[in-house]
What does this fold into?
Amino acid sequence: MSEPPNPKFAAQFDSDARRTPVRVAFVTRRTSPQVKAQDDSVVMTYPEGLFRAAVAIEILAIALVVVSLIWDAPLEELADAMHTPNPAKAPWYFLGLQELLHYFPPFVAGVLIPTMVVLALIVIPYFDINIESDGVWLRNRERRLRIFIGALVVFTAIMLVFHVYAVLIPTLLIAGFMLTAAAGPPEPSRFRRWLVSKPLSFWIMTWFLVQAGILTVIGTFFRGAGWSWVWPWRS
It folds into this structure.
């Protein structure tokens, strides 16, 4: 005599994997293969993720419209072909690149560095395949530390040769935090545990954002006639 079928298995139309965890579900056009649970750390792209992105875009658009109605844009006078302003500054989102042109040759600052940055931003997301990425110092610590110190020494030497202190100083500051995460007391503090848990992509992206912000601020407020260094409170 054959055994009765397992009652835990049932064929039904459903989209909740928590309510009936052992089952065969038929997903039709009117249902979506989503998990309806409160403790999930991720949500489905459609419709939850798409709906949240749409709401965020609408809120941002409304905020920009309100700001534009209250404050006028800081536009300058009409352009005069007979009079070129000194210094001729690019839009704020290109001032970091214009600041690099002050230190490096045009090919390096205008072609090589932007290309390397774009390629790095494309490659960085593929450094961590898992959703929960490990800290950069949690595995192969000695080997990674030697590679990091070698790269830092080479980078520091290049910045010193070209006198690019605006890039060197923030880089050394971020490198100090990375070394703090790599070496410390046996029982680290909460702040150091937070540093240790950060992956390589976090450090690279942090360095990129800090450098872009500092170079933009310098080009906006600290460059005067002839792209010379000026203090904004003295002009």
In short: The mean pLDDT is 80. The helical segments are 45-70, 95-101, 106-123, 141-161, 165-182, 190-196, 200-221. The longest strand covers residues 11-12.
